[in-house]
Amino acid sequence: MNFSNTLEFAKQLDEQDTLKHFRERFYIPIINDNESIYFTGNSLGLQPKTTQDYVLNELEDWANYGVEGHFHARTPWVSYHEIFPELLVDIVGAMPEEIVVMNQLTVNLHLLMTSFYRPTKERYKIICEAKAFPSDQYAFQSQAKIHGLNPEDVIIEVFPREGKAYIDKQDILDTIKAHGNETALVIFSGVNYYSGQVFNMQEICKAAHEVGAFCGFDLAHAAGNVALELHDWEVDFACWCSYKYLNSGPGGVSGAFIHQRHIQNTELIRLAGWWGHDKENRFKMEQQFQPIPTAEGWQLSNAPVLSMAAHKASLDIFAEAGMHNLVKKGKALSGYLLFILNEINQSCDNAIMEILTPTDEDERGCQVSILMLIDGKRIFDELIKSGIIADWREPNVIRVAPVPLYNSFEDIFNFGKVLQQNLIG
Predict the structure, then answer these.
(1) Residue 1 reports pLDDT greater than 80
(2) So what's the pLDDT on residue 349?
(3) Distance from C-alpha of 187 to C-alpha of 63, rounded to nearest angstrom
């Protein structure tokens, strides 16, 4: 598409957008008595206007039924989690029995690593990206320590090449091959939180399996953002949060994926809890754990229904919009943003910012990360004053994520206009 940095062009794109009406389904934060331009769906998605009703329904059923709500609520709580796999199959590219919604992201990461990081004397290495999200790094370090290993001996990080902001795919594949005989687990983000780089999950997974290692992904910045085909890619496991692109509220419930070839393997070590026990016998309170032969077998506790109600409010909107349509618009939004940022840079005598996110649309989703070369924090503060909510990351990075459910091309044009005014006057 040939872009143009004009208000008329942005409005034309919005007029042609078949998803534009979904913006009306969300509460947009107000700044200076006007709707803000909200570009931080990669950190916390906006609240659907239906969320309050979904949660209120469960509060009313709790008030009316007490404990009997587990069986007599409008959506009985004892099986509440079972509504989610069908709502998530298109979002993560999986079969229903491979998906379970439970806990929070890092809790699920630990649970899954308990099953899939089983180091031996020969195989004990973990290969991951450099500058993974800190919570992931802490999880990798602590999992190594649990097995009596030194994290410095265990963790191999793949770095960007000199002078590059993101990691070359070939370097990931070469690292896996070079350390293959020692590697127990390859685990990457689907999308790097800092740069916005989308990793080639299919090729990474294939390379890991070729050397005999398991492969998993943290999809915190990928789920609801980019196209995923976890089953077809033969990913061993993955987990994701729901409060970013999936718009399910702060600290929202998490999701997990375990590939079909593993879910019936009762010999696979796991941390067990009663909600993962065979449903037919769960309330017999037997001492021996019998895992459900689906991803549900990794559950520990009964469902956090209030959080799940917020999750369902958002996923119902995703089902209506269609994940394919959202991915297509998301790439168009970030493509237009990249175009405007490059125009601003070219209008200056010297470059005033550096784009950290890959320009190839196969390697990016909604997020564009901008390294400010001058006055970064001042400019970020001015954006906030102008009603633009973006995200600041040290040392001088502004992350911008136009989300297809509630952002417009006009939002991006106006962002560029404010940015240029504060950069070059």
Answers:
(1) no
(2) 74
(3) 44
